[in-house]
Specification:
MoCF_OxRdtse_dimer, globular, 5-stranded antiparallel sheet, 5-stranded mixed sheet, 425 residues, binds molybdenum atom, binds ligand MTE, Sulfite Oxidase, Chain A, domain 2, alpha+beta, Sulfite dehydrogenase
Length: 425
């Protein structure tokens, strides 16, 4: 821990000692310690929960968040797409902590709306270059050995609106096309082995059962390596939005390949060059050529607090900065943060499990002097790769791109603690 951190902690404790309410109310410490007596302690009429019995068990057979948390929701950007059935909404990253995305807050990206599948008539077909074509029911899939793994899913278009400059005001909108959950599923390798993959096979095609019949070509090596045919997320059945009852998990690779409502895997000897890997999810360079098959998601990070939707509300003093980082190529051993636009960098404190191809949480506690700040974070992944600036990305990729924008994000914080999406050069 750095010196400034020790100092901050001491000052926080001194501040809190002035009023007991400060200790209990955390960020409201500065205001409440001045008020004596404190009605939040002395006036029980404001606290009906102390005067009546609460609901019994089973009032909510499936539990929901407190009504006071009703602002913690997925949000869309209405002008972004013409119709909600082929659209996207965004994970409220600024309201979350730790590394796991709650199931009800995982961003959604559909090309033909949410398919409402009946698990009884669910089937997964394996065909193409296999010894024995197979059809599995959901119950059949449940009889294979399962694995539990935590992975992030990031849409390749995450931060795509920011290619030509700062645009959307909030990390929910600039970085919220990502979620990170624990999947339970069967290794795709075991299912392919059951059908028997022929020796000239080199690719698989994954196909969804939704109205969009989403298809993507995936190299056989990846399919045999770490892909999962998943039916649970965070311990419970996949949500319909996430592909109930079965989705493909393609760790570290762009979200588009993670076919939801998975109904068929065809084995072949070359890629299919379908829509989602030609006209979409390729990166048009400045010279008119397009990068294709850019599957792995490069290391990226974002400060989630403070950020435009999460301003500093407490005035000068001890401040917790936090954010998330991830890499499709490994883990994140280190994140650097700056609060002065890159003049000085500090190594952030990582907290929580560190898994390959999963989200990581970082913190940087500092003493805010009440002046303007320029906040940035920079992820290092376990391969040694360092997250680039947006200018570095544009230099090699031009300005036509939408996908794979993993450039460093800047938030400008003013004296009022309000944050804004900006770029510095
Ligand atoms: N069947 C099907 N699978 C799909 C899609 C789809 O529209 N249909 N969208 C893809 C895209 S572009 C992304 S980014 C992810 C989004 O997954 P999510 O909705 O769980 O966030 O699913 C992918 N799998
Ligand atoms: Mo996507």
């Amino acid at each position: 821990m750095s010196q400034s951190n020790d100092h901050s902690r001491r000052r926080f404790l001194q501040g809190a000692a002035l009023g007991t309410a400060g200790l209990m109310a955390g960020r409201a410490a500065a205001q409440t310690s001045a008020q004596t007596p404190d009605p939040a302690i002395t006036d029980l009429s404001q606290q009906p929960w102390t005067q009546y019995l609460g609901d019994g068990v089973d009032a909510r057979p499936y539990g929901m968040p407190s009504p006071y948390e009703s602002h913690v929701i997925r949000r869309d950007v209405p002008w972004l797409t013409a119709d909600a059935v082929s659209s996207v909404n965004f994970t409220p990253l600024h309201e979350l902590d730790g590394i796991i995305t709650p199931n009800g807050l995982c961003f959604e990206r559909h090309h033909g709306g949410v398919a409402e599948l009946d698990p009884g008539s669910y089937r997964l077909m394996i065909n193409g270059l296999v010894d024995t074509p197979k059809v599995f029911t959901l119950q059949d899939l449940m009889r294979f050995p399962r694995e539990n793994r935590i992975y992030f899913l990031e849409c390749a278009a995450n931060s795509g609106m920011e290619w030509r400059g700062a645009q959307l005001n909030g990390c929910q909108f600039t970085h919220g096309m990502i979620h990170n959950v624990m999947y339970t599923g069967v290794p795709l390798r075991l299912i392919l082995e059951e059908a028997g993959v022929k020796t000239d096979a080199a690719w698989v095609l994954a196909e969804g059962a939704d109205a969009a019949a989403m298809t993507r070509s995936i190299p056989l090596d990846k399919a045999l390596d770490d892909c999962l045919v998943a039916f649970k997320m965070n311990g419970e059945a996949l949500r319909p939005e996430q592909g109930y009852p079965v989705r493909l998990v393609v760790p570290g690779w762009e979200g588009n390949m993670w076919v939801k409502w998975l109904r068929r895997i065809e084995v072949g000897d070359k890629p299919w060059y379908h829509r989602e890997e030609t006209s979409k999810y390729t990166d048009l360079l400045a010279n008119g050529k397009a990068r294709e098959f850019t599957w792995a998601m490069d290391a990226k990070s974002v400060i989630t607090n403070p950020s435009p939707q999460a301003p500093i509300l407490h005035g000068p003093g001890p401040t917790v900065l936090t954010g998330v980082a991830w890499s499709g190529r490994g883990s994140i051993p280190r994140v650097d943060v700056t609060i002065d636009g890159g003049i000085t960098w500090h190594q952030a404190r990582m907290s929580g499990p560190s898994h390959d191809k999963s989200m990581h949480r970082f913190y940087y506690e500092f003493d805010w002097d009440g002046g303007p700040l320029l906040l940035q974070s920079r992820a290092h992944d376990s391969t040694g790769y360092v997250q680039p600036t947006k200018d570095m990305l544009r230099e090699v990729r031009g300005e036509n791109s939408i996908y794979h924008n993993n450039g460093i994000q800047t938030w400008a914080v003013n004296e009022k603690g309000e944050a804004e999406n900006v770029e510095i050069t």
